[in-house]
Write a structure and sequence with these properties.
- The protein contains 18 helices and 21 strands.
- The protein is α/β, with parallel strands linked by helices and 513 residues long.
- The relative contact order is 0.17.
């Protein structure tokens, strides 16, 4: 048994939805006994950077099979400035539609409480908690206008956010590099952070720039956290691109210094070298500034803009032979191939090919891009305040879409962490890695009675075989279940038995107390 950063031999008893006993149960009787001799037992893994809500799979694939088979029992949604509530009007949901066909989903909610009510009608496989996305607040008040908010508009955002916190949100997420995020001034952010602090929540940030401007992006957030007293959590921390890798140690020094000053610092990461992102995000900031799809497409058609875009892309020194097309709305033949392959076969330079595939697919194109240094990831994972997360999405194994490839992290991030940080690098102790998947994320979010094997805590439990644990999911073949996850209990119910999904969906909606 692993809990509280230590291992011990013990039996774990479950009664109803709670852990009823930890100790020696050799003389006890039970309706069901699992022999976990030679295996490890821990609290269920908690994924605090998950996008199952904004990718709509909580509705289309509510069982969240690809997460359960990793040992994940609880997810946090509302990340990276996007959440499904609160909505001022139903059409606000278009900001998080992400090219997903949601015509079969009845968006009949406005408040977070109403969203929870609608979600509770479905049997979800994992526990679900959420933040409020800064972007959905701005969208509700400002519509499509990416500009500074005035005093009255900030007050409206505050009111919306406060109601959502009262409905059970755990805090606020931002994405200050997005069109709406870049338009928010200090007054707006301070007002929202004040609501977070007054209600005992936390703030979670997608860095404005994860590349060559990562240092000023971190400095900006540290300043805001210091001024607001809310602490600072960085989602899916990474440094993108070889040109930015030299900034790694300076970035860590900034965060360490802030923590030494007494600022509450935390972060999470995933154990992969490739990102999964929209291809249009490679475009220059001045092209993305307008925010709307139509304006970006206009820029792609303009001769002078095209030249500027190509020059900008060349300056990024991208490795096109490692950049894979993961999805293309109208060009399924390109999926799974590299930009280098596709540009060579079409007789175009890679930059021109990128512009053309974006045009042809109305921007609906995503990529896997190898831009992360795994040694940096491993070093960062050693920090006591860094948790493991997937930055992925829960999927069904049966509903494969081989023309829109999910990132392997959606199927194997947590077991992959055992491979990368323990089996390949010996970067962490087993007990510390499990802590980063259980107790630490529970503490960061403020989840009560979860994340730790303890009497009267909820029985979210994983039994795993360390020798066999791993994430075999691949970029070209992602729909592979993790190995070594033998049993998973969610609120006392068996969701995975003997390495196989049981079909039981026992997840609950978690509200901030």
């Amino acid at each position: 048994m692993i809990s509280n950063r230590r291992s011990e031999k013990a039996d774990v008893g479950i009664k109803g939805d709670k852990i009823s006993f930890i100790g020696n149960l050799s003389d006890a009787s039970a309706d069901k006994i699992i022999d976990a001799t030679g295996k490890h037992v821990s609290a269920g893994f908690i994924d605090i950077t998950c996008h199952s809500d904004t990718h709509w799979t909580l509705f289309s694939d509510p069982s969240q099979e690809s997460l359960l088979t990793q040992g994940i029992t609880t997810i946090l949604g509302g990340n990276c400035g996007a959440s499904l509530a609160p909505l001022v009007k139903s059409s606000d949901i278009s900001v998080v539609q992400r090219w997903t066909d949601i015509n079969q989903i009845n968006v009949n909610w406005h408040s977070l409480s109403e969203f929870f009510e609608e979600l509770s009608r479905r049997k979800i496989g994992v526990n679900f908690a959420t933040l409020v996305g800064h972007g959905i607040l701005r969208r509700g008040v400002l519509g499509d206008e990416a500009r500074h908010a005035d005093v009255a508009e900030i007050a409206s955002m505050e009111h919306l956010f406060k109601e959502a916190m009262e409905d059970g949100a755990f805090g606020l997420s931002t994405s200050l590099g997005s069109a709406h995020g870049r338009s928010a001034d200090d007054q707006e952010l301070r007002s929202l952070f004040r609501v977070v602090k007054e209600n005992g929540g936390f703030t979670k940030h997608h860095l404005k720039d994860e590349g060559k401007n990562i240092l000023p992006s971190i400095v900006e957030l540290i300043r805001m956290a210091r001024e607001s007293g809310t602490g600072l959590h960085l989602s899916h921390f990474k440094i993108l691109g070889r040109g930015a890798w030299p900034f790694f140690h300076d970035a860590i020094e900034l965060l360490d210094s802030a923590e030494n000053e007494g600022l509450r610092i935390s972060a999470d990461l995933f154990p992969y070298t490739k990102t999964g992102s929209a291809l249009y995000q490679l475009l220059p900031p001045w092209i993305l500034e307008g925010g709307s799809k139509d304006k970006i497409l206009e820029s792609l058609k303009n001769k002078n803009s095209r030249l500027e875009i190509k020059a900008f892309l060349k300056s990024l020194t991208l490795h096109y032979e490692k950049m894979i097309i993961a999805s293309a709305l109208k060009d399924s033949a390109s999926v799974g191939k590299t930009v280098a392959e596709l540009s060579n076969s079409s007789g175009l330079d890679p930059e021109e090919f990128i512009i053309r595939i974006l045009e042809a697919n109305q921007l609906a194109c995503s990529i896997f891009n190898e831009v992360i240094n795994i040694e940096h990831v491993s070093d960062f994972a050693k920090k006591s305040w860094v948790a493991i997360a997937s930055d992925g999405v829960g999927y069904s194994f049966e509903k494969k879409n081989l023309f829109d490839l999910p990132h392997p992290r959606s199927f194997g991030a947590f077991p992959k962490a055992f491979e990368v940080f323990l089996k390949e690098r010996d970067a962490l102790r087993l007990e510390d890695l499990v802590y980063k998947m259980t107790e630490l994320p529970a503490s960061i979010v403020g989840l009560k009675q979860r994340g730790r094997l303890e009497k009267d805590n909820f029985a979210d439990i994983v039994v795993f075989d360390f020798q066999n644990i791993g994430g075999p999911s691949e970029y070209g073949n992602p729909y592979l279940p993790s190995t070594g996850i033998e049993h998973v209990f969610v609120n006392g119910k068996a969701a995975v038995e003997g390495g196989k999904l049981s079909g039981t969906a026992a997840g609950r909606i978690l509200r901030r107390a």
